[in-house]
Amino acid sequence: MWLRSLFFSLVLLLTLVPVRAAEACGPDFPHRLLADRVGSLSELPAGSFRKEAGRLVPMPADPFRVVEEAEEPPDARKGGGEKETALYEAGAKAFKEGKWEAAHSRFREVLALPAEERQHFSTFAAFMLGRNAGAGSEGDMKMGFELTRQLVRDGFDDPLGLAVASYGEQARRLLEVGDDAGAIQLYAEQAAHGSENARSSLYLVAHALAGDKARLRAALKTEVAQRLMAVYVWTRSREWYWEDNSQLTQVLEALAQATAASPQVPGLSIADKLAAGAWRGGRFDLAERFASVEKTPLAAWVQAKLAMRRGDRAAAEKFLEEAASGLDEQEDWMEEVVGELQLRPYCRVEGERGVLALARGDFNSAAERVLSSCSWPDVAYVAERVLTVEELQAFITRHPTAEEHTCKRELGSLWYDQDALETKTIPGRLRLVLARRLMRAGRAPEALEYFKGTRFEEPAKKYVDALAITQQNVSNVRKAEAFHEAAKLARTEGFSIMGTAVAPDWSWAGGMYDVTPYDEEPDRLSPGAEKAREPVGKVPLMGDPEKQRAASHAPPHDIRFHYRITASVLAQRGAELLPPRSQAYAMMLCQAARYAADDPERFQALYRMYVKNGTSNIEEPWSFGHQCHPPAFERALSMKSAQSKRAPFRRRHLLMLMGGMLIPIAAGAAFYLRRKRPPSGS
Q1: Exposed, middle or buried by CB within 10 Å (0-12, 13-18, 19+), for 630?
Q2: Cα–Cα distance, 669 to 157 (Å, whole number)
Q3: What H or E segment, with its residue span, contains residue 430?
Q4: Under 8 Å CB-to-CB from 466, ≥6 apart: which residues?
Q5: Tens of pLDDT, residues 460-514
Q6: H helices within 154-222, ranges in order?
Q7: Rounded to an integer, what distance in angstroms lies between the CA atom of residue 474 and that of residue 577?
């Protein structure tokens, strides 16, 4: 039994994990709706087959125990009375030896005992009667498995979860005789009790029916099979990326015919799933037909997609609002996912509403919707590049940091970035985004308020203090020393105190990747979404107001790790306050060049400045910008003092020299004038 459980567990793992188009070696970034806005509005996520398979029939009020682990529970076969134990063990031994009639007799004898004498092994015996059914005892199969379930309902022991297992065993026998619909019903009931094996079995049956027209038509005469196949075309449509897409169309057409006149089953929707599957398969005509049958959140979501394809964004927003109001915020279709983690349905719908709000220029509404999406990369973009500093401050005031937040699951899937140790909530992260924006905007003292209580507070305060000294009434050398300290902090702590969450630093990806090239190659979408791309994107989804804001809110230097250039500028400003022939001047320029190593033009400009103004303080020309000694500010200070003391002497020396030069000039001029004067009396 445990081998069969292990097999089904492996099949479940391989078949129920959602399939996604992926790069061969990653990286797998968190899902972002704003990275490909047209694709986000065109795509409808696939549901969870595992979850939907457990909803094909109503959930039982008192579910049976499920035991599907590889190992039996300890002592599961102990605790029975002496007589029932002996009879069951004899029957089990006969079954193992292939002595079917003897096994049948012993199991019957167990069930013939008085109820109080067979409390433990009654379910064992009934279950084995079903398994032992064969020639001459075909009726035992149905009777034995149904009796197993009834005995558990009547209060008999079931330490091995045989009541749930009996559904699967009985369904397998029906499959062997070609009764697909009967097997689906039993597997659906087994899944409703929580069996993972049943979910795997339902997938295998659905996959087989999808490839066999005759079996499919026969099975679709029952409503439970219709529900199964509707779930299958919606949740597993990505499998047709790798197969002939005509099979999906074949199943959709068969479902359309089978459900044309079938009554709706209260509480067990099917039309919305057919609409979703039709959209993902590119059958927009069928999506239109099925989406209007039921008023469910999923149906409203499909109608929103259809409206966007028609270019009616106003209608799309209304349908998305309807979908959001009906979705369970905790519903999750991606419990087991390979690679990129998808958003919860509610979060995805809210994110799509945010995309449309951005498109119409309603930035405050967009911020609210994107916050509800729990997509931190998208929230970070709106906070950093769309909202003004004042709008972001007001937004943070409306959403104070809390101990718990609804986005805990999504934040847990993020890359491990520098903010993960400081806060576990999106409002907490937003405070850090604002603090860094204020630092970049030259409003460093205000930024300290938002860094308060984090490990970034100390380096930020040191940076603010250093910049404050550069504005005080102190010597130029002291100001240069303060610029040196600020530049060093900008270089070593810049990512923490002024880095960007999105481009160009990408702190949400830990600063490990420039995400831009990956965004230029969007993920492959479902066939329907790919077909819808062109009409959905006919009107741009990013207007001029947003573009202008995104440009004006960008960091001061358009280069990855931009704060390194800030450090270079600060070091250069400090150098310009020093005597050009001093060692400190040369070393400050050297450090400015080293900080700007990623900007070749700036590096060369600094080197030319050094060659023009500085003295030979660099041991080797190639070491400029690479090996920079600490600036000797005290020597620069004494050098400046000496220059100040020599200044009056130089002025006196210059005046004396000029006076000495003027005497012979004056004498020469007088002699010349005397020679030019005519003799007296002439």
Answers
A1: exposed
A2: 135
A3: helix 426-440
A4: 482, 483, 485, 486, 489
A5: 999 999 999 999 999 999 999 999 999 999 999 999 999 999 999 999 888 888 8
A6: 162-176, 180-192, 196-210, 213-219
A7: 12
